[in-house]
C-alpha cells in the first residue's frame, strides 16, 4: 500500500475518533447539568423521593438549630413564596438570614429535607448590581 494513502487513512480515522469523542463529551456535559429551582417551582413540581437543587434567600427569623439539625425557610429571590426545610450537616460560616443559598433537597412526605453537606452560600458582592459611578 502506498505510504501517502496509509497516512491519509490514519489521519481520517484519528479525526473521526476525535469528532466522536468530542460529541460524546458535549452530550455528557449538557445531559448531566441540573438547573437549580426556586421555592415556588419546588412547591408546584416537587415529587416525593426525588432530589432537587433549591436556590433562594434564607427567610429572616426562620433559622433555628437543634443539635446537628438546622431548620430554616428559603424564599424566592423576588417574591414571598417560601419553603421550610430541615438540614443536617455542615453549615458554611457565611450562612445567615437574608443570604442566598443553594442546597439539595428531597421531599419526604409533606416536608422538605436538605441533603447532608450540600448547603452552599452565595457571595452577595458578586450578585448585587454595581453602584453608579463605578
Rounded mean pLDDT score = 85
CATH class of the largest domain: Mainly Beta
Q: Give the neighbour order of strands across the main sheet.
A: 1-3-4-6-5
- How many DSSP helices? 2
Termini gap: 68 Å
General shape: elongated
Q: What value does the Rg take, in angstroms?
A: 23 Å
Low-confidence stretches: none
The beta-strand count equals 7
Approximately what portion of the residues adopt beta-strand conformation?
A: 25-35%
| N-to-C series of helices and strands | HHEEEEEEE
Instruction: Classify the fold: give the CATH topology of the largest domain.
Output: OB fold (Dihydrolipoamide Acetyltransferase, E2P)
**Helices and strands: which structural class?**
alpha+beta
Find the CATH superfamily of the largest domain: Nucleic acid-binding proteins
Helix content: 25-40%
Structurally, the number of domains stands at: 2
Give a description of the structure.
The protein folds into two domains: 1-33; 39-124, Nucleic acid-binding proteins (OB fold (Dihydrolipoamide Acetyltransferase, E2P)). It has helices at 3-32, 39-45, and strands at 51-58, 64-66, 69-75, 82-88, 100-108, 111-114, 120-121. A five-stranded mixed barrel has the order 1-3-4-6-5. It is of the alpha+beta class and 134 residues long. It is built from two helices and seven strands, in the order ααβββββββ. The longest helix is centred in the first third of the chain and has 30 residues, at 3-32.
Amino acid at each position: 500500500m502506498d505510504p501517502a494513502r496509509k497516512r491519509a487513512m490514519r489521519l481520517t480515522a484519528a479525526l473521526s475518533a476525535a469528532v466522536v469523542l468530542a460529541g460524546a463529551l458535549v452530550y455528557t456535559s449538557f445531559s448531566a447539568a441540573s438547573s437549580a429551582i426556586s421555592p415556588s417551582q419546588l412547591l408546584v413540581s416537587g415529587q416525593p423521593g426525588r432530589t432537587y437543587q433549591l436556590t433562594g434567600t434564607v427567610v429572616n427569623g426562620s433559622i433555628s438549630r437543634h443539635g446537628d439539625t438546622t431548620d430554616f425557610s428559603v424564599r424566592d429571590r423576588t417574591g414571598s413564596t417560601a419553603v421550610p426545610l430541615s438540614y443536617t450537616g455542615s453549615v458554611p460560616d457565611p450562612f445567615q438570614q437574608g443570604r442566598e443559598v443553594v442546597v439539595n433537597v428531597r421531599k419526604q412526605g409533606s416536608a422538605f429535607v436538605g441533603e447532608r453537606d450540600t448547603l452552599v452560600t452565595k457571595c452577595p458582592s458578586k450578585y448585587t448590581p454595581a453602584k453608579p459611578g463605578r
